[in-house]
Design brief:
Blueprint lengths: L2 H6 L1 H20 L4 H17 L9 E3 L4 E3 L1 H28 L5 H18 L3 H19 L6 H32 L4 H9 L4 H17 L9 H7 L2 H7 L2 H17 L4 H21 L7 H22 L2 H25 L19 H4 L1 H15 L7 H13 L3 H27 L12 H14 L7 H13 L7
Antiparallel strand pairs: 1-2
Helix pairs in contact: 2-3, 2-5, 3-4, 3-5, 4-5, 4-11, 4-12, 4-15, 4-21, 5-6, 5-12, 6-7, 7-9, 7-10, 9-12, 9-13, 10-11, 10-14, 11-15, 12-14, 12-15, 13-14, 13-19, 14-15, 14-18, 14-19, 15-17, 15-18, 15-20, 15-21, 17-19, 17-20, 18-19
């Protein structure tokens, strides 16, 4: 095996080795080492960022073109690793209070992150499937991690059953693409489709994108999301809503652009349907939710629809806009979940009802102010930074002659703004509910402040470097400059 190939997968090698070492330490030291392993996991993720190939150059491919170490993969992995590190730190304080923080948690996060890295770098259907299943297997265990909670066990079982169904659909699509194109490589599939799209290849596209749509929880493959988000432990839900979303979206973009590029007009219709269904249902279904985690689940579905607008454009600017959107979305959703993690009663038990936020501005004013920032930013209300990603993806759609799609998406964003504003109204205008218990968690408090500053108007200072980074990343999928 060439040394060059091993150097291109150095982040995955480092995280795999770290996961194995932490697993041995966990077996030897037991659950008392959980917090130490969490910090070691964060160190491993930071180290993986530092050795990332493709950040300062266009990178190369490894293993006979099955794995790409380009700027697109590098950008996606950096954001994924940061989100995973934040999720690890958030879990340490939350599970610590419950007394069931097991040492396997950081190990599972690291192995899931290895799978997500493979998803972002996959340039072959086999690499795609291996990476996706590696992430999914760890996610199934994470969803049911809190064994003393029946809701967590139920969430893990639902996720596993529906995930297995989606994997079967994806695998069937992969088999059709291989059968009708004669190859599993993205480049070879694109060449075969360039000679004309057969009905077999079209069916392969439909089934493959349907399987991937499950992973990003786009409608109508969203059915698992509200139940799993509600039942899983809150730190796990925060993880599901951030890093895996970007990994699946990066994979979706690479498959559609690199493997199915010549068939853009065919798969664009599928993506447009996902956009319309996700933005409409994600906006309407969240209105009557009483649980904050279920509401954020529908918010996730809604935001996935907006991010797909960029992919529907099928251009370099559209893919860059999707990466930009997902980066800011991860900051917004992690910030919101960091506040949900602080929703505990005087006995330290989690409280998840939206009604418990009533009058929060009078009992915990700074916490209320943070939640207001994240809700208004998720709604895309200027001058908060959450407005800009929506503008970028809508602008990419208009530039690709999809003005009507942008108009519909703008209209549905008004629907979703209703339930975000409803939460702010509950916090600032309703009679106070029983106050939450005190929290002294300096690490998560620092992360919360950093997320709030990023999505505040100060975030506009990051437009220049973030735009340059996403444009460079998207260019890796369009070598001809199209």
């Amino acid at each position: 095996m060439p040394t060059h190939d091993l150097l291109l997968v150095l982040p995955e090698e480092l995280l795999s080795a770290a996961g194995l070492i932490l697993m041995l330490v966990a077996a030897w030291a037991g659950d008392r080492s959980a917090k130490l392993l969490t910090w070691l996991g964060v160190v491993a993720l930071v180290a993986a960022i530092l050795v990332m190939p493709g950040i300062v150059d266009q990178g190369a491919s490894a293993f006979s073109g099955m794995f790409a170490a380009d700027s697109f993969a590098a950008f996606s992995k950096v954001v994924i690793y940061i989100a995973a590190a934040v999720s690890l730190l958030a879990a340490s304080s939350w599970f610590g209070r419950e007394g069931d923080f097991r040492a396997e948690y950081p190990v599972l996060i690291l192995f899931a992150t290895v799978g997500m890295g493979m998803m972002a770098s996959a340039t072959d259907l086999l690499t795609l499937y291996v990476g996706l299943e590696m992430q999914s297997l760890a996610a199934y265990v994470l969803a049911s991690f809190q064994r003393t909670d029946t809701r967590s066990a139920e969430a893990g079982l639902k996720y596993f059953v529906l995930g297995a169904l989606a994997s079967g659909i994806l695998l069937y699509g992969i088999s059709l693409l291989y059968g009708f194109t004669g190859t599993t490589g993205f480049t070879g599939i694109a060449q075969a489709m360039g000679d004309g799209l057969s009905k077999g290849e079209l069916f392969g596209i439909v089934f493959t994108l349907a399987g991937l749509a499950f992973k990003i929880s786009a409608v109508p493959f969203h059915m698992w999301t509200p139940d799993v988000y509600e039942g899983a432990p809150t730190p796990v839900t925060a993880f599901f809503a951030s890093a895996p979303k970007l990994a699946a979206m990066a994979l979706f973009a690479r498959v559609t652009v690199e493997a199915m590029g010549p068939a853009t007009e065919s798969w664009r219709q599928i993506v447009i349907f996902l956009v319309l269904a996700s933005t409409i249902l994600g906006g309407v279904a969240a209105i009557n939710q009483k649980n904050i985690k279920r509401l954020l689940a529908y918010s996730s579905i809604n935001n996935v629809g907006f991010a797909l607008v960029g992919i529907a454009a099928g251009t370099k600017e559209g893919v860059a806009a999707t990466l930009f959107y997902m980066t800011v979305y991860i900051a917004m959703t992690l910030g919101a979940f960091l506040i949900v993690l602080r929703m505990r009663d005087e006995d330290g038990q989690p409280v998840e009802t939206i009604a418990s936020l009533s009058g929060l501005s009078r009992t915990r004013p700074w916490l209320a102010f943070g939640m207001m920032i994240f809700m208004f930013s998720l709604a895309g209300i200027p001058p908060l930074f959450g407005f800009w990603p929506k503008f970028v993806v809508f602008n990419a759609a208009v530039a690709a002659n999809l003005s009507w799609l942008a108009a519909v998406a703008i209209a549905t964003s008004v629907i979703s703004a209703f339930y975000y504003i409803m939460i702010v109204k509950t916090i600032y205008f309703d009679e106070p509910a029983p106050a939450y218990g005190p929290t002294r968690e300096p690490v998560t408090a620092g992360l919360l402040i950093a997320a709030a500053l990023f999505v505040s108007p100060l975030g506009y200072l990051a437009i220049g470097p973030l735009d340059q980074a996403t444009t460079t990343a998207a260019a890796a999928l369009f070598p001809s400059g199209t």
